[in-house]
Specification:
By secondary structure, the protein is an alpha+beta fold. The chain folds into two domains: about 100 residues; about 55 residues, 2-Layer Sandwich (CRO Repressor), CATH 3.30.240. The protein is about 55% helix and about 10% strand. Helix 2 runs antiparallel to helix 3, helix 2 packs parallel to helix 4 and helix 3 packs antiparallel against helix 4. The longest helix has 23 residues. It is elongated, with a radius of gyration of 23 Å.
């Protein structure tokens, strides 16, 4: 192999790389479309892992000399089937606890529940930053703050001056 072909590759091979990339992308989009509509902010941990895996397959396989389109499709289908299985388990009674963390109360009646905060992997500074995102500057005006299973903070402010 000379220096030029090592740098640019074989022109005929480049066409097949582009064709495989195009077909794998279309296949991934169609397969994921069957899985329903969710925004990035709503992705659970298992959704995120599936999205990264699909991206890795679509991004890597076309340029792999030993990877065919059909091996890419088989890999995509295996990942998406595993994702569908996890989704099915999550929808069964008791299955959700196996797949996702439940909500954790981190503030109750204006008081930070430090033990729960630490179990959730947050510091007081993290909590204060999340509260500021909700327009809340002081913890004592919060009736209830719950760290949801997907990492978002739900905040219920106190109803009046006396709570």
């Amino acid at each position: 192999m000379d220096a030029v072909s090592a740098l640019v590759g074989h022109p005929g091979w480049l066409v097949w790389v582009a064709v495989k990339a195009f077909l794998l992308y279309l296949t991934a989009v169609l397969a994921m479309r069957l899985g329903g509509r969710r925004t990035l902010a709503e992705l659970s941990a298992y959704d995120f892992v599936a999205a990264v895996a699909v991206g890795a397959i679509v991004g890597r396989l076309p340029s792999a000399p030993d990877g065919s389109y059909l091996s890419g499709v088989a890999t995509l289908l295996a990942i998406l089937a595993a994702h569908a299985l996890i989704t099915w388990v999550r929808l069964r009674p008791g299955g959700r606890r196996l797949i996702e963390k439940g909500p954790v109360v981190v503030v109750a009646r204006g008081r930070v529940l430090t033990g729960n905060l630490h179990r959730a992997g947050l510091t007081r500074a993290d909590l204060l930053a999340l509260l500021r995102e909700h327009g809340i500057a002081e913890v004592d005006v919060v009736h209830l703050a719950v760290l949801e299973g997907r990492g978002r903070l739900s905040v219920l402010p106190r109803s009046g001056p006396g709570g």
